[in-house]
Design goal:
Layout: E1 7-16, E2 19-29, E3 34-38, H1 45-52, E4 60-65, E5 68-69, H2 75-81, E6 83-86, H3 98-104, H4 115-125, H5 127-131, H6 142-154, E7 160-164, H7 172-189, E8 192-197, H8 200-206, E9 209-214, E10 217-223, H9 224-229, H10 231-237
Parallel strand pairs: 3-8, 3-9, 6-7, 7-8
Antiparallel strand pairs: 1-2, 1-4, 4-5, 9-10
Bound molecules: adenosine-5'-triphosphate (ATP).
């Protein structure tokens, strides 16, 4: 029997005034899986994540978490329910310290229990955040801010983590570092992860399943191994290899 996906998007449509950014999308994440969404600029990837996270209301369709509809909830409610967004551009609080930013993430957890242990784990995974815990977050490098944004989301104890372009503006080395932590979050905490990424090679190497978006629609879907074998994926997303 098929297991119920932890997160499901069904026939989703999102508009900005007259602009139809998401044109009927179906997507599922199984518990414990990493799913990558690839696509060019303007394909609608950020809109998809923002609609799932409750930042934007869909015009049609549904978002279901553990079988229950969550669309129409505000972003705080969605986060408290267990679906937590790491937004594009990180959006850390620049004038709060690194530690204070991490504590801000804990608003959405259901219990205070284990908070110190979670903080210690984040500092173990991201030693640079430990070194800079008392500095203003605005003084961190782009890579460190991405680590902080992920750490802040983890303080919410998410069941599903939504990552919007974690590699944006990062060096190849830092991108690999971030994605190795993404894998670790998934294997050690069993967090399901939906990651939107321009870097198709690293996203397909990290995820279980993938979806390709073009102009608001899903144009291909499959396991990452299947997608990597498709000629158009090779040509347009993997640099013609
Ligand atoms: P990028 O990687 O550049 O963020 P994306 O795949 O995430 O691209 P979106 O940012 O979701 O794409 O944008 C999808 C479409 O919606 C684009 O045509 C974009 O111009 C449009 N769009 C995005 N935000 C708005 C807005 N606030 N108002 C009107 N149109 C918007």
């Amino acid at each position: 029997a098929m297991t119920q996906p932890i997160l499901a998007v069904r026939n989703l449509e999102t508009w900005y005034g007259p602009v139809n950014a998401i044109k009927g999308i179906n997507l599922e994440i199984q518990a414990g899986h990493i799913v990558a969404v690839l696509g060019a600029n303007g394909a609608g990837k950020t809109t998809l994540l923002n609609t799932i996270a409750g930042v934007i209301d869909p015009f049609k369709g549904s978002v279901e978490f553990e079988g229950r509809a969550i669309h129409g909830q505000d972003p705080d409610q969605v986060a408290r329910g267990g679906v937590v967004l790491v937004p594009e551009g990180r959006q850390v609080f620049p004038f709060l310290s690194v530690r204070e930013n991490l504590m801000m993430g804990s608003f959405a957890r259901s219990s205070r229990e284990g908070m110190a242990a979670d903080l210690a784990r984040i500092f173990e995974w991201f030693p640079r955040l430990l070194e800079r815990q008392d500095q203003h977050a605005g003084l961190l490098s782009g890579g460190e801010q991405q680590m902080l944004a992920i750490g802040r989301a983890l303080m919410a104890r998410p069941a599903v983590l939504l990552l919007d372009e974690p590699s944006l503006g990062l060096s190849p080395l830092l991108t690999r570092e971030i994605f190795s932590i993404v894998k670790r979050i998934n294997t050690e905490l069993r967090t399901a992860i939906l990651v939107v990424e321009q870097n198709a090679a690293i996203a397909l190497a990290t995820a279980n399943d993938g979806y390709i978006m073009e102009l608001g629609r899903i144009v291909a879907a499959g396991t990452c191994a299947e997608l990597m074998e498709k000629e158009d994926v090779k040509e347009f997303y993997l640099g013609g290899a």
